Amino acid sequence: MPTPTSPVAPPGGSGPGSRRAGFRPDIEGLRAVAVLGVLAFHAAVPGLTGGFVGVDVFFVISGYLITGLLLREAVTTGRIRLGEFFSRRARRLLPSAAVVLGAVALAGAWLTVPLRRTELEYDVVAAALSTANWRFVQQQTDYLAAGHDQSPLLHFWSLAVEEQFYLLWAPLIAGFVYAAARAARRGRAVRSVVTAFTAVLALGAFVLSLRWTGDSVSLAYLGTPSRVWQFGVGALLSLLPWHLLRGPRPLRLLSGWAGAGALVWCMAEYDTSTPYPGYAALVPTLATAAIILAGIPDRSADGSADGPDGPDAHGVGRLLAGRAPRAIGRLSYTLYLWHWPVLVLAEARLGPLDWTAKTALTVAAVLPALATMRWVEQPVRHSRTVSELPRRGLSVGVSAVAIPVVLALVMGTTTLRLLGPATPVDVKGLPPGAAEGPHLLSREGTPLRSGPVMPSPVQARKDFPPDGTCEVAPPVTSSPRCLFGAADSPDRMVLLGDSHAGQWFSPMLALAAERGWALQELVKQGCPLPELSVVNTQLGRTYHECDTWRADALARITKGPKPRLVVIASLNRYTDDQRLLARGWERTLKPLRALGVPIVYLEDTPVPGKDIPACVSGHTADPEACAFARSTAQWPDPLARRIAAGRLPGVRAVSVNPVLCPPEGADCPAVLDRILLYRDDAHLTDVAAVVLTPRLERLLSETGALAGGTGAAAGAGGWTRVMHDDFEGPAGARPSADRWKYDIGTCYPGCPAPRWGTGEIETMTDSADNVRLDGKGALEIVPTRRDGKWYSGRIESRRADFAPPPGGVMRIEASIALPDVTGPAAAGYWPAFWTLGAKLRDGYTGWPSVGELDIMESVNGRDTFFGSMHCGIAEGGPCEEPVGLTSGPQPCPGRRAGFHSYAVEVDLTPGAEEVRWYLDGRIHHRVGAARMDAGTWDRAVHHGLFLILNVAMGGKLPAADGLTAGPGTEPGHPMRVEHVTVSTREGTTRS
Question: Which of 558, 565, 555 lies closest to 519, judged by CA?
């Protein structure tokens, strides 16, 4: 399938010259049609999306002209002088190519960043040695090499195909000529044998092209074997005795015009979604053959020739042989050589361009093309001195190859010295990563020093997870065994997904090894884990192998030994249809959830959308210049939302994105704490993944998924801690951005309930004046007054998926010291610790049916507090709203003198479901499921929850208690929170 990043073939082959025997001016004009289509395609001109079919035109022309030239020599002289043949080819093609390669090598040093420069020099060498097509086949079929900028020499792939054709085809025909040298009728013998061989070869190559088009579009499009049949079609035009055919003249006219019409139709109707070459290439190939065939002179009875120079004034050949088409045809080779580097290098310097700018640049490429033709191509080609002896032409060719190769090697070596060694980073020597907080690396121990990024850009390019062949390629339909770590252990962790799961291999292996578990990796490149049908760009078609692999992977997990933990991850942008994506995830997760084991979804990491190592190599002093927009790097994640809403029990979501793309600012960094985060345009470096290991361990431990790990084991009574924050940190610091987010202003976004729906008078802020760590292991939420207005703090847990396991219990607990203020000075104070149902995160509607659990509320400095449950309808109903099912004032002597434990348990034990409130371990309130109808209860508790800590001022509850904030109310008295913990205990229904 052709793409805008796959330039098509140049007009190589036998070039026009003097009116020698066999010269066809109409073919010279046909080259103009082909090259204009190619240029329009590369310039993205609207309406010419199929201009890439020019490749077929050029290959057919080359097969026709080269075979005809060789055949005429064989028939007239009885031999083929290979030295003379290759000398002509070298004089014709290589000097102009050498000029362009040298210019690109030099311009690349100025216009491209260092890392891209080294890759460009490799491209120069491959292009000079006529192997560019195989270099680009390897790059474009290698999923792990994706995301790099396109090469200014990508168009040399087709010149390489033609050169390889010449190198094989001429000796083959020479061999046939030698074998037939003693035949009585040499010409007929050679023609018959070569024709038969060509027909078989073309048919076989066409079948191979069809197969490769189905298996690997890059190999089919760029590979020489899959293009041979098009040269063969042209060769058959030369080999078969078409000039002896008798037929009505209108039929010849119709053939030519039909071929021209078919070419125009292909250029207008084909596009990058057309499977190519495949069957689609038949149309432009046979259309070109029809045009050439229509112009082949026939012999009348009197021996006169009829052709484009004869009386056929109405044929397409007459139009193609016009002065303008022939002038463009003569320039076509050098114009093709120049236009693509001009476009790519301009975009490397200026950024993406629209089609009008590209068209203007393409027109501008005419100038260097004319200069090259006038002062390089024609003088060398027609030089009597050079053409006198074949060895001189061959010497010119060798020099034309050697000069750009040497230039590229010199410049490439210089750039490599600048970039430093490409040896892998020793991950054992990396600085320790931070388990939490806004920094990637731990601030404990030796302070960070300035220095180069790790890995360096050249190291980052190859900084893949060390998982060998376990990240299987697109054609593969089943993963190998891929057990790592303690492979014989009965306990195992499964890492499942696409390459965005594979990037977590190193951290997962470390965590599994720490626990004595095995790690099983089931990862496939470019394959969405949600059940979606997608097109694979490497294969150029629907990715059936992905569906087969996914089904096989799920079957292996569900039918094999039950894992301790399944970690899943996937690129989050295979489709922008959120409903389709959600349904795909549900189908994939269904068999996994049936296992009854913890499933953790690692939310997709930011996708930069640009080649980060290349960018950083050009901005070593200011890597901030390589930052990228958060709005395009992070897409909405329907699975994370559903997990947070508690709609997928048994599945937990964790994210490292708060540190990779901090919530402050509009951009995500490419380098953080001197760690180069990305190896391409979408994947983390292995170094970045390794330093994220402590953070991942904490996040996974908080979900309860890493039983047996540090801080994750079930405690007394079978409780497993799934979230804990002890608010350690320097005085004045913010609480952990990984765990908490701020509510600010006077209502939720969109203001569905002004003044937070309770009549409060404060404005919530994210200022350290209102929310801060005290430096002694506690969080302070402090109401302040400025210019007669009240300000305070309100934070929510980032997670909204806190829920009991099926049939189990969840406990939410905080150690709190209430504001040390009482009497008139405390009027209007309203500290609270409470929860809301996760669905409110999707738009803040549906209260109170979605459920609210007030774990602790206290007003006006009283030595009492409340516990309440809100549910049902807004007025009355089974939950007696708006008051709710409340404990009423509970005595709490000494609440200001020290910390007390306030907790709630949501117990889903079958037949005994209830919610219980605790003060310092003593139950003081409970609400059972029998208190209301089943539907109300289900909507109130059977889902995920998020936590809230705040100190409000004024509002309905303080007013109902008889006081409200006034001039006598003293600001500055904090609610202090020593820790918050969420724990779960499995129920009896666990499988």
Answer: 565
Rounded mean pLDDT, 270-283: 92
- Nearest CA to 288 out of 331, 229, 213 is that of 229
Q: Which two tokens stand for residue 779?
A: 């969080």
Segments in 692-763 forming alpha helices (H): 693-702
Q: Are the C-beta atoms of residues 155 and 164 closer than 8 Å to each other? A: no
Residue of 508, 913, 485, 948 whose CA lies nearest to 735: 948
CB atoms closer than 10 angstroms to residue 387: 17
DSSP of 544-605:
HHHHHHHHHHHHHHHHSSPPSEEEEE--S-S-S-HHHHHHHHHHHHHHHHTTTS-EEEEPPP
Judge if the upstream peptide bond of residue 848 is cis by omega within 30 degrees of 0. Answer: yes
Average pLDDT over residues 268-282: 92
State the CB neighbour count (10 A cutoff) for residue 737.
17
pTM for the structure as a whole: 0.74
**Packing angle between helix 156-179 and helix 186-215, nearest 10 degrees?**
150
Closest CA to 503 of 318, 690, 365: 690
Tell me the pLDDT tens digit for each residue of 157-216: 999 999 999 999 999 988 888 877 655 455 567 788 889 999 999 999 999 999 998 888
Q: Are strands 305-306 and 298-299 parallel, antiparallel or unpaired?
A: antiparallel
| 802 DSSP assignment | B
Tokens (6 digits) for 62: 């080359």
305 contacts 253 by C-beta, under 8 angstroms: no
CA count, 13 A, side-chain hemisphere, 987: 19
- Please write the tens of the pLDDT for every residue from 31-41: 999 999 999 99
**The pLDDT value given to residue 213:** 87
Say if CB 339 and CB 280 are below 8 A apart.
Answer: no
| DSSP secondary structure, 447-469, as one string | PP-----BS-HHHHTT---S-TT
Instruction: Give a three-class secondary structure readout of 494-549.
Output: EEEECHHHHCCHHHHHHHHHHCCCEEEEEEECCCCCCCCCCEECCCCEECHHHHHH
Contact of 892 with 822, CB cutoff 8 Å = no
> Is the dihedral angle over the CA atoms 56, 57, 63, 64 positive or is it negative?
positive
pLDDT at 708 over 60: no
Token pair of 394, please?
């061959």
3-state secondary structure 271-308: CCCCCCCCHHHHHHHHHHHHHHHHCCCEECCCCCEECC
Q: What does the block give as tokens for 421?
A: 């060694």
Closest of 662, 639, 392 to residue 497, by C-alpha: 639
Structure tokens of 27? 């073919």
Mean pLDDT is highest, among 280-284, 304-308, 695-699, 750-754, for 280-284
Helix (H, G, I), strand (E, B) or coil at 350: helix
pLDDT exceeds 60 at position 531? yes
Cβ–Cβ under 8 Å, residues 79 and 177: yes
Q: Which long-range contacts (CB under 8 A, 24 or more apart) does 239-248 make?
A: 239/67, 239/71, 239/191, 239/194, 239/195, 239/198, 240/195, 242/293, 242/296, 242/298, 243/296, 243/297, 243/298, 243/299, 244/298, 244/299, 245/298, 246/298
The answer to whether residues 536 and 474 touch, using CB atoms and an 8 Å cutoff, is yes
Work out the widest C-alpha separation in the chain, in whole angstroms.
126
Dihedral sign from CA coordinates of 505, 508, 514, 516: negative
Q: Is 762 helix (H, G, I), strand (E, B) or coil?
A: coil
- Asked whether 970 and 821 are in contact (CB, 8 A), the reply is yes
Return d(Cα 277, Cα 279) in angstroms, integer: 7
Phi, psi of 194 (to 5 degrees): -65, -40
Phi then psi for residue 924, to 5 deg, are -125, -5
| Cα distances (Å, whole numbers) of residue 987 to 130, 917, 939 | 68, 19, 20
Distance of CA 809 to the CA centre of its chain: 40
